[in-house]
Amino acid sequence: MPSVNELNDIGAPGQLTESEEVFVFPASFAQQRLWFLDKLEPGQNTYNVPFAIRLNGDLNQQALRRTLQEIVNRHEVLRTTFSEDESGKPIQLVAPEREFKLAVSDLRSYATQFRENEARRQVVEHVRQPFDLKRGPLFRASLLQVGDAEYILSLAFHHIIVDGWSWGVVLQELSALYEAYSQGKDSPLAPLSIQYGDYAAWQQDWIQGERLQGLIAFWKKQLSEAPPVLELPGDFPRPLMQTFSGAQESTVVPRSLQDALSELSQKEGVTLFMTLLSAFDLLLARYSGQNDIVVGTPISGRTRSELEGLIGFLVNTLPLRTDVSGNPTFREFLARVRETALQAYAHQDLPFERLVEELSPERDLSRSPIIQVLYIFENSTGKQKSHIGGLELIPFRGAEGTTAKFDIQFSALVNPSGLRLALTYNVDLFRPATVQRMLAHLQTFLEAMVADPEGRIGDLCLLNGAERRQLLAEFNSTEKEYRRDVLVHQLVEEQVERNPKGVAVSFNDEHLTYADLNQRSNRLAHYLRSTGVVPGSLVAICMERSMEMVVSVLATLKSGAAYVPLDPEYPKDRLAFMLEDSQAAVLLTQERIRGELDFGSTPVLCVDASWGEISTHSDDNPKNLATPEDLVYVIYTSGSTGKPKGVCLPHRCLTNLLYWQLESSHASVGDRTLQFTSLSFDVSFQEIFSTLSSGGSLVLISESTRRDGRALLQYLKQHSVARLFQPFVALQQIAEAACEEHDLPTSLREVITAGEQLKITTQIASFFERLPGCKLFNHYGPSETHVVTSY
Asked: 76, 123, 323, 709: most buried, per Cβ within 10 A?
């Protein structure tokens, strides 16, 4: 860094343009980046920097106005706007001194109980109003009078003219000037020796040539073959474009742990900054599964005393790359982190923006280049001024909102009350519970480190005692005392006894009560037994979605046999293979299908055409001959990797599945479930029997309506469907159709997806936002080990 004389020689007084009466300076590298981002998305408030304080006491408003005016007069950057030169590069335009306006609002006309909310509303509106970088001003202030001796001062800046350090400068000067002016004294502050424009001009002149090439060479070597992204597992799919909606979770470290960390740092010759960074690096390595971790950290950029009193955007970002491989001891790992940090400090003058330009990483609009995680360390152990000129100063929190410019930002604040750790996170990537767990894991790491510095980092336990019990015991405690001797169809028979007149199945204007369904199924079951069907037999069912289809499935189980579903839409040769491979004892079908398909030598029964003969058999429940180990169905795979294979499942595991489904369902007794999927898809079993074994009503649908998203939506509304099983593709089709519909099926209580990985698209998200009473679950995995996720 050059001396103050060199800064003055390079930067002052700037180039005066007579036509506009402004001084012109080049934009700093950091300002160039924000200028570019503003041009990319103009009118955003992402980079608004708010400060608000409560002032209690007898406020001298004239002294406050004069104070703010003097601060603007002292700092040219507060009178700066931005334009472009002939080559298109951004430049700073510094206006001459001019009157600064303080907006004042008196809220005492509001009822006392409403003043605080109105004050917060106005502060939020004030600090979030976008700035125009070309027209300015880029600093504004508002004073709200809440009571006779209670005020809120709200200051808002664009980040292009300030950084975090600048607020300390503002507060220091505000205090000194207000105390002087309120007593009728002159300013006690010495004139500034340099301005931000001088710094920007120096930066452009000094960081070039051999010096620039040396810095670039270091950072290129430092980041050579570094992973382009830190793959932290998120709770939600990453948006296509980076978002900045943030929230924060925090915790205060116990004093005993804070003291132990300070003692460890002192013994190892490192700073507390380095010790906490080491723990954070290890946490990121565990979460991401990567051994090469790149974390960004801001550095003030004020390496000379002359720069400490400037308001401006001087902060730079340093990428700290840490090698987590080799399973060193924590003491050895601390030494690695120390060396990384010291090397970065020694080469801190290369602006991060210039580094990104040199490395030219592959552009990804969904995340920040090079750095996706930031680490901030603040030491505020000094005494903070709480009174000025007879006024009590109290921070006004919560009105500024939270933005997340990175996936995760870890902040460590040391102050008189202790060590506060916070994680600011992107809400479009993480849930609050996930971030709270990360904080708990970080503290667990810290405790393990101070307890055994000689321990290997690979042996450090991420989980606390409660989580270990949950992982090893509770998650594996899956035993349930289900009725082991009950069969699937017996669960339906129990519902017949409870509610014989309830509607079991409906199709358009037709319906069957539970008594009707049971009676018809019993007659067909007795008929099947009369043809020689016994437990262990297979009964093929090739039908369109209909009342006969549901009756045939239930009757097959009552006969003691298992059903083999055959989709009439399948190719003929595939149906022929499945019939031959299964050696079905009989095929149940419909008259209109029999004439279209060739079923070979398999005995065929057209249930609709033969009902007269079938109905002569008993309508009593057949005596049960099957056991829990006998099969319920044999469903053939698609054959995409070869010949279709029959998957056989017995009553035992499927009754367990039904019990689990009924326990986890949000549907109420009697709710309607749409029978959407083909009988050849295993989810159809859940649709049919989770409904009929719980006293619900199964709603059938025609194939044409099933394939038309808009017609399907109307059908769901018309029949008050509460539960829906859908593959992702079909759910997406419905969601897209819903975008064009005003009225949605508000009867829906739960939608269950299965068969393929669920993606929360914009349309699906919108669909469920418009149906707040409906839950979305994803069943993705083997039938006995479902993973359920609520949207």
From this structure: 76
Q: What is the mean pLDDT of each run of 10 residues along the chain (791 residues)?
A: 40 42 90 90 88 93 96 96 92 91 94 90 91 95 95 96 92 94 95 94 87 94 94 91 90 94 96 97 96 95 88 95 96 96 94 90 89 91 67 77 86 88 94 94 93 92 83 81 86 95 93 97 97 95 96 97 95 91 95 87 93 94 94 90 89 90 72 94 94 95 91 93 91 91 89 81 89 81 34 38
- Answering whether pTM is above 0.85, one says no
Sign of the dihedral through C-alpha 637, 639, 642, 645: positive
Cα-only R_g, the chain: 36
Q: Per DSSP, which regions of 41-193 are E strands? A: 48-56, 80-84, 90-94, 102-106, 139-147, 150-158
Say whether the peptide bond before residue 188 is cis (omega within 30 degrees of 0). no
Domain count, the chain: 3
Question: What CATH number has the domain bearing residue 421?
Answer: 3.30.559.30
Residue 157's domain comprises: 4-199
Number of H helices and E strands in the chain, helices first, is: 26, 29
The answer as to whether 127 is a domain residue is yes
* Position 623, amino acid: K
Is it true that the peptide bond before 13 is cis, omega within 30 degrees of 0? Answer: yes
Same domain, 165 and 225: no
* Cα–Cα distance, 691 to 669 (Å, whole number): 9
Mutual angle of helices 547-558 and 488-498, in 10-degree steps: 110
Domain final residue pick, 442, 474, 506: 474
**CATH code, domain with 60:** 3.30.559.10
Q: What separation in angstroms does the CA of 135 have from each of 98, 138, 142, 260, 754?
A: 15, 9, 19, 52, 55
